[in-house]
Amino acid sequence: MIKIGLVDFYIDEWHANNFAKRYRELADEVGVECEIAGVFALTDSPAEGSLGTAAWCESHGFKHLDKIEALAAESDAFIIFAPDDPERHPELARLVLPFGKPTFIDKTFALTVADAKYMLDLAKACGARMYTTSSLRYADEVRAARGASTVSLYGNYVHLKDYLVHTAEMVITVLGVGVSSVCCDTDGEKYTFTVEYADQRRATVEMTPVYGFKVNGKEVESDIFGGQIKDMLRFFVGGESPVSTEEILDVARLVEGGMLAANASGRRVNLSSLG
């Protein structure tokens, strides 16, 4: 039986809610016995009508623990959510990783390469197995395109900084590591990114507020979250990380470089300069 501690900036958000609904069913599918040890959050959701941490825990039948040490004492592994507050991830990592337990950190892992390296180095120093990924890695449509030298992608956004990671993850999953540059043409609410590699691999990524994700024109319709949660559970019971350090860092380079390019339309960002 693996006991999972849930950690968040505020817990009443879509990713934590989706995990709470689905983890038991998906654990059964992969043959992992697990339960939620408890929940720790730094604050309550600011959204009107959202539940505070204690009320959210009561609604799901989970234990609310207001000290991270208390949660660690009852947990074998951790999930750090805060999907819309990536700037909080280093702070939450500093609370969690010193306990040396397997940890998944949700998207967006880091807004900068420096923050990504900091958390990876911290995990290594603490002896904590850790990884991160966007759920779009698990789209069947993305995996079917692996090994190509070029790809055309589409993704939506609400706030670009929170959604750019999804298309970045798609690029790295399809084309692999080694990204060298990114530029962006901006037209109102439409961002068109061109991602280039030194060996001529190339991705074109269009992002608008219109909902959906596409790979070479094909809509992503597969169960992306199911695959993500299954891999997470396998990792917690000793499985290998499904994402390499090199992939994690290249996704971070695309997120940081993509935001720099989006804020200066037409500028080409050399990703190696970011670390």
Helix content: 25-40%
Strand order of the largest sheet: 11-10-6-9-8-7-12
User: What count of domains describes the coordinates?
Assistant: 2
What is the CATH topology assignment of the largest domain?
Answer: Rossmann fold
Extract low-pLDDT stretches.
none
**What is Rg?**
18 Å
Number of strands: 12
**CATH superfamily (homologous) name of the largest domain:** NAD(P)-binding Rossmann-like Domain
Distinct helical segment count: 9
Strand content: 15-25%
Largest sheet: 7 strands, mixed
Characterization of this structure:
β4 (103-105), α5 and β5 (130-132) form a beta-alpha-beta unit. With 275 residues, the protein is α/β, with parallel strands linked by helices. The chain is built from nine helices and twelve strands. The chain has two domains: 2-132, 3-Layer(aba) Sandwich (Rossmann fold); 136-222 and 253-274, Dihydrodipicolinate Reductase, domain 2, CATH 3.30.360. The N and C termini lie far apart (40 Å).
Properties at a glance:
9 helices; Dihydrodipicolinate Reductase, domain 2; alpha/beta; 12 strands; seven-stranded mixed β-sheet
Q: What layout of secondary structure does this protein have?
A:
Blueprint (H helix, E strand, L loop, with lengths): L1 E7 L5 H17 L3 E8 L11 H8 L7 H7 L2 E4 L8 H8 L6 E3 L7 H14 L3 E3 L7 H4 L6 E7 L3 H16 L3 E9 L2 E8 L4 E7 L4 E3 L2 E2 L4 H13 L8 H18 L5 E3 L5
Parallel strand pairs: 1-2, 1-3, 3-4, 4-5, 6-9
Antiparallel strand pairs: 6-10, 7-8, 7-12, 8-9, 10-11
